[in-house]
């Protein structure tokens, strides 16, 4: 059973945050394209603005809104989800130990195995759904950072944020959570004890497949957060003013889009679970799903718009199904208003933990009965 979504989020998002501090009190905040700002006559910068590689007034409204939604002390935009995520790891020091989930976004996993390891981080991958294993690794390895992704792409594994944060706190480790799929509408990791939350804002926050952006929000404005901000500013890992403005526009419909995609995803999961050619449906909202009880505890108002299916015909049927859909677009990414389908094993390549009979489904806001009919036809035509 799901809890009622907090309606105040709907109002805050629709209003686009508090924008009355800008000159002329516009309903839609202005876009500032200037890269640099004038000094005062005494050579000071009392405006707080110096150079747009570090900051831009266009970021203010979406950053304040994200901080409000996450109940964070601060939030900042980044040039992409990967820019946001990697900044957290770059704020660590050579020799530091990191725990990461064995099921996670493949590009970040590859970065951790490659560039992060080359830079001196000691990265260990753990099944974050098994608390005993997590606690043993934390006690044994004394990590500086525990990275969670829940639900975890593309198996939608659910990690118990509160339980892991409690364990980490006693060992002096920070917890960062990739909450891209849940969004702050469904889960707010900082309330559950996490220190940092990350969003690939390209996905649900923007929701229209036309912006690349990322975001971080922090529980405390501490020294570690200041290191992250220095990495952002000095590396120029910031979005363009146009992308920031477009992101805010997308966020104004976030509540409605998440609500609709959650409803449709649940409908599809329940229907597909009964289909004889579907061997398994992976969706946190199904009682048959391994992480269902934890999902009920830490997700409010729904279980997200992402699910995966495994087909009895194996890889051949999975690839064939994706080729035969009409409404489901064969494309990477997720969280847009249009529904996407992808054979993830083909994308991730050798060494992927993803089964080759699996299709990842990003459920958009189309009529759910149309999506089901199209997908079932493709499954049966590929048998």
UniProtKB/TrEMBL annotation:
GO terms, biological process: cysteine biosynthetic process via cystathionine; transsulfuration
Keyword Transferase carried by entry: no
Molecular function terms, GO-annotated: cystathionine gamma-lyase activity; pyridoxal phosphate binding
The entry's keywords: Pyridoxal phosphate
Gene3D superfamilies xrefs: Aspartate Aminotransferase, domain 1, Type I PLP-dependent aspartate aminotransferase-like (Major domain)
Superkingdom of the organism of origin: Bacteria
Name of this chain's protein: Cystathionine gamma-synthase
Natural source organism: Idiomarina baltica
């Amino acid at each position: 059973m799901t809890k009622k979504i907090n309606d105040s989020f709907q109002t805050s998002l629709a209003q686009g945050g508090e924008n009355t501090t800008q000159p002329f009190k516009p309903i839609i905040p202005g876009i500032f394209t200037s890269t640099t700002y004038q000094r005062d006559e005494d050579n000071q910068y009392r405006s707080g603005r110096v150079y747009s590689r570090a900051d831009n007034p266009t970021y203010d409204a979406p950053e304040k809104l994200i901080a409000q939604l996450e109940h964070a002390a601060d939030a900042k935009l980044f040039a992409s989800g990967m820019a946001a995520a990697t900044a957290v790891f770059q704020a660590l020091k050579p020799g530091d130990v990191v725990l990461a989930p064995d099921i996670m976004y493949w590009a970040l996993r590859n970065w951790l195995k490659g560039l992060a390891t080359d830079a001196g981080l000691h990265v260990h991958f753990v099944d974050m759904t098994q608390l005993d294993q997590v606690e043993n690794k934390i006690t044994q390895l004394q990590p500086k950072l525990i990275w969670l992704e829940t639900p975890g792409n593309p198996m939608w594994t659910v990690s118990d944020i509160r339980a892991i944060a409690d364990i980490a706190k006693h060992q002096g480790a920070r917890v960062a959570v990739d909450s891209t799929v849940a969004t702050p509408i469904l889960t707010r990791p900082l309330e559950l004890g996490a220190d940092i939350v990350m969003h690939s804002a390209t996905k649900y926050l923007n929701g229209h497949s036309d912006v690349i952006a990322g975001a971080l929000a922090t529980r405390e404005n501490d020294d570690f957060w200041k290191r992250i901000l220095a990495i952002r500013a000095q590396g120029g890992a910031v979005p363009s003013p146009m992308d920031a403005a477009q992101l805010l526009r997308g966020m104004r419909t976030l509540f409605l889009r998440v609500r609709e995609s959650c409803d449709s995803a649940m409908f599809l999961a329940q229907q597909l679970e009964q289909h004889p050619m579907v061997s398994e449906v992976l969706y946190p909202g199904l009682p048959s799903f391994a992480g269902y009880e934890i999902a009920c505890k830490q997700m409010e108002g729904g279980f997200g718009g992402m699910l995966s299916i495994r087909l009895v015909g194996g890889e051949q049927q999975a690839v064939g199904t994706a080729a035969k859909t009409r409404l489901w677009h064969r494309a990477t990414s997720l969280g847009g208003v249009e529904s996407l389908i992808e054979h993830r094993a083909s994308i991730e390549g050798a060494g992927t933990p993803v089964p080759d009979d699996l299709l990842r489904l990003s459920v958009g806001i189309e009529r759910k009965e149309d999506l089901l009919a199209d997908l079932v036809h493709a499954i049966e035509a590929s048998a």
